[in-house]
């Protein structure tokens, strides 16, 4: 059986770390692409040389062109500029839209059957750009946001309660930004509702810290943004697709009537398998949650409207 093939576009911190997670999990052979000569080649060779030490056999190559990416099963787009202190995700929009448009057009030429996972910010808008320029069916383009946001939310709950992250189940929906929607009503610890453990004001503080999770790290780093957790989240999605795991995960998906919305990418629960997004799960929402999700979608729509697609 032929090995799976993963293309990662952008050999910066997120892309290179995603390649590392994918190699360690032996998900397939990896092609690392970047416009800067030498960077993807050097990082790929370094990762390849770690194989005998960490005992993985993934082949890893770096390239500045798209021919070596041909027939990829998954394409992960991390290319773009990173946030700096004082920048919102939306500030990145114009620059990153041009980058994502260019790389998606190139990649789809060589891998029209691949599932595209978009990581570049502002996430939901960049996923929309990739969807429009590739012309792929909507199941083949998915944005990474909800897994990262949910990971942060679960981290903060675990720290607050002194309970293992493994036992915390949660969903964060909506746009990947200040108006993301952590669903408190679906947050449980081994099936026990979070509200059993914490009063409303402590839950709200954890929700707010989740919304601020990205900028908290940007403010520490000063010259860059998070990359360990974002790349791990992207590879969790790639693993679900490559191994046809049918994972139910919060991801940014193109809606066509689901949750009463159309023509927008927004974080919702989806089933991820070999065909990409195999189902969108419409969960009942409280009035407040639905309002918050609609407000989040309006923010994404307003940003999409600024683009010339």
Chain-wise SSE layout:
Blueprint: E1 5-9, H1 13-24, E2 29-33, H2 39-54, E3 60-63, E4 74-77, H3 93-110, E5 115-118, H4 123-134, E6 141-143, H5 146-161, E7 168-169, E8 172-173, E9 181-182, E10 188-189, E11 192-193, H6 200-211, H7 213-221, H8 228-242, E12 247-256, E13 262-273, E14 276-280, H9 287-305
Parallel strand pairs: 1-2, 1-4, 2-3, 4-5, 5-6
Antiparallel strand pairs: 7-10, 8-9, 10-11, 12-13, 13-14
Features:
single chain; 309 residues; alpha/beta; Rossmann fold; L-2-Hydroxyisocaproate Dehydrogenase, Chain A, domain 2; 6-stranded parallel β-sheet; 3-stranded antiparallel β-sheet; 9 helices; 14 strands; 42% helix; globular
Mind explaining what this structure looks like?
With 309 residues, this protein is an alpha/beta fold. It folds into 2 domains: 139 residues, Rossmann fold (3-Layer(aba) Sandwich), CATH 3.40.50; 160 residues, Alpha-Beta Complex (L-2-Hydroxyisocaproate Dehydrogenase, Chain A, domain 2). The chain is built from 9 helices and 14 strands. A 6-stranded parallel sheet has the order 3-2-1-4-5-6, with helices on both faces. The protein has a 3-stranded antiparallel sheet with strand order 7-10-11, with helices on one face. Strands 12-13-14 form a 3-stranded antiparallel sheet. A hairpin with a 2-residue loop joins strand 13 and strand 14. It is globular.
Q: Identify the overall geometry.
A: globular
Lateral arrangement of strands in the main beta sheet: 3-2-1-4-5-6
Q: Compute the CA-based radius of gyration.
A: 19 Å
Let me know the average pLDDT: 96
Number of helices: 9
CATH architecture of the largest domain: Alpha-Beta Complex
State the CATH class of the largest domain: Alpha Beta
Quaternary organization: single chain
CATH topology of the largest domain: L-2-Hydroxyisocaproate Dehydrogenase, Chain A, domain 2
- Overall number of strands: 14
Q: What is the total domain count?
A: 2
Q: Give the helix proportion (percent range).
A: 40-55%
What's the name of the CATH homologous superfamily of the largest domain? Lactate dehydrogenase/glycoside hydrolase, family 4, C-terminal
> Poorly predicted ranges (pLDDT <50, ≥5 residues)?
none
SSE-based structural type: alpha/beta
Run of helices and strands: EHEHEEHEHEHEEEEEHHHEEEH
Question: Roughly what fraction of the amino acids lie in strands?
Answer: 15-25%
> Major sheet: size, sense and barrel closure?
6 strands, parallel
């Amino acid at each position: 059986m032929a090995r799976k093939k993963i293309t990662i576009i952008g050999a910066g911190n997120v892309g290179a770390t995603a390649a590392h997670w994918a190699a360690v999990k032996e998900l397939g052979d990896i092609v690392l692409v970047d416009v800067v000569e030498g960077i993807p080649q050097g990082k790929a060779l370094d990762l390849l040389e770690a194989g005998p030490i960490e005992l993985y056999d993934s082949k890893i190559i770096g390239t500045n062109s798209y021919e070596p990416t041909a027939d990829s099963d998954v394409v992960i787009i991390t290319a773009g500029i990173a946030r700096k202190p004082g920048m919102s995700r939306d500030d990145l929009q114009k620059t990153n839209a041009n980058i994502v448009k260019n790389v998606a057009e190139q990649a789809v030429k060589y891998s029209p059957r691949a599932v595209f996972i978009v990581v570049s910010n502002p996430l939901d808008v960049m996923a929309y750009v990739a969807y429009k320029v590739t012309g792929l069916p909507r199941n083949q383009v998915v944005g990474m946001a909800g897994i990262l946001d949910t990971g942060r939310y679960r981290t903060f709950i675990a720290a607050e309660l002194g309970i293992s992250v493994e036992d915390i189940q949660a969903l964060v929906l909506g746009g990947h930004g200040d108006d993301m929607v952590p669903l408190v009503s679906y947050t449980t610890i081994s099936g026990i509702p979070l509200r059993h453990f914490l009063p409303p004001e402590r839950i709200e503080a954890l929700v707010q810290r989740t919304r601020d999770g990205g900028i908290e790290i940007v403010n520490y780093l000063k010259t860059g943004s998070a990359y360990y957790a974002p790349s791990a989240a992207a590879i969790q999605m790639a693993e679900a697709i490559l191994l046809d795991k049918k994972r139910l995960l919060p991801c940014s998906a193109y809606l066509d009537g689901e949750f009463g919305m159309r023509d927008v990418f927004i974080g919702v629960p989806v089933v991820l398998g070999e065909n990409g997004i195999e189902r969108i799960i419409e969960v009942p929402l409280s009035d407040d949650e639905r309002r918050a999700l609609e407000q989040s979608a309006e923010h994404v729509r307003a940003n999409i409207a600024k683009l010339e697609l």
